[in-house]
Amino acid sequence: MSLLVIRTSSMGDVIMTLPVLRSFAAAYPGEELVFVTRKPFDQFVTGIPGVKVFLFDHHGRHRGFRGILRLWNDLRSMYHITAVADLHDVIRSKVVRLLFRMGGCHVARIDKERIRRRKLVRGRLTGSLTHTVERYRTVFKQAGYPLKLISGPWLLPSDEGRAVAAARTGGMKRPFLGVAPLAKHPLKVWPLEKMEAMLRMLMSRKECTIFLFGSPDESAVVDEIAARVPGAISMAGKISLGGEIALIADLDLMVAMDSSNMHLAAMTGVETLSIWGGTHPRAGFSAWGMPPENQIQIPDTELTCRPCTIYGKGTCRRGDLACLEWLTPEAVLQKILNKLN
Question: Of 146, 158, 168, 192, whose Cβ has the fewest other Cβ atoms within 10 Å?
Answer without folding.
Answer: 146
